[in-house]
Amino acid sequence: MNKVTKLISALLLTSSIASAQTLVTVNGKAITQNDVDTELMNATQGRFNQVPADRQAAFRQQVLQQLIGKELIYDDAKKTGITKTKEYEEEYKKLEQRMKKELAIQVWQKKLLDGIKISEKELKDYYKKNKEEFNEKESVHARHILVKTKEEAQKIIAELKPLSGEKLKEKFIELAKKDSTGPSGANGGDLGYFTQGQMVPEFNDKAFSMKKGEITTKPVKTQFGYHVIYVEDKKPSMTRKFDEVKGFIEQRLKLEKFKTVMKEKMDELQKKAKIK
């Protein structure tokens, strides 16, 4: 039952991702942000947002490289005639039969899940009893440019210092892609949102002391090198309102009820079935 619940949870989470931005094309085939996000959600069973912020960019890049690799291999398999061999056709038929069964099971399970209704009272009762679950710590959305030497960092700061607003952000992203040695460089140095303690102390303390739209005026040294930090956004600690988390609560309660409904349905099917 745990596997079933995780499968449905991942399905629901991945369906909410709608970005179709093309990241790269491989021999004419587009790989989109949606493709990467879907792979990330599947790999983490819908918990990618729980991956530490400083590892998310590297994880994204790793998944993108894997998708590129798959396209390259598939393209070569077609060119070399692999997809026309008897072995390929036999394995394809076996896979097709397995997928028919798996897909039917997934759609059946989703239909069962969709039929479960949660009342407004149940939703509000859960929120009242578990309000601390929706407490959010103060968080910072930052970008950084990581370089090896203090001099390199100072040169970057000097180039950014005269700028402000969108021009500062755009230039920072440009320099991060060009100069940063960190894994997030390819994504404009984006580290996403992180809370107190998720980053190394020197980086953490500096980022949380800054204002939205600011860059560091001096390089920040850590065990990884020298950082230039740009704070894109800040969120104060807060408790999310009921209307904001209502959808999340509904899915959680539906999944909990799903276990019971699934067990009852399986018991019913077993009683009707001829199992020898």
What does this molecule look like?
With about 280 residues, this protein is of the alpha+beta class. The chain has two domains: about 1-130 and about 240-270, no CATH class; about 140-235, Roll (Chitinase A, domain 3), CATH 3.10.50. Helix content is about 55%, strand content about 15%. The chain has nine helices and eight strands. It has helices at about 1-15, 35-45, 55-80, 85-115, 120-130, 150-160, 165-180, 200-210, 240-270, and strands spanning about 20-25, 30, 135, 140-145, 190-195, 220, 225-235, 240. The strands form three sheets. It has a four-stranded antiparallel β-sheet, with helices on both faces. Strands 1-2 form a two-stranded antiparallel ribbon. The protein has a two-stranded antiparallel sheet with strand order 3-8. The longest helix is centred in the last third of the chain and has 31 residues, at about 240-270. The chain is flat and about 75 Å long.
Helices, strands, pairings?
Elements: H1 2-14, E1 22-26, E2 29-32, H2 33-43, H3 53-79, H4 86-114, H5 120-129, E3 135-136, E4 139-147, H6 150-160, H7 165-179, E5 190-195, H8 201-209, E6 220-222, E7 225-235, E8 238-239, H9 242-272
Antiparallel strand pairs: 1-2, 3-8, 4-5, 4-7, 6-7
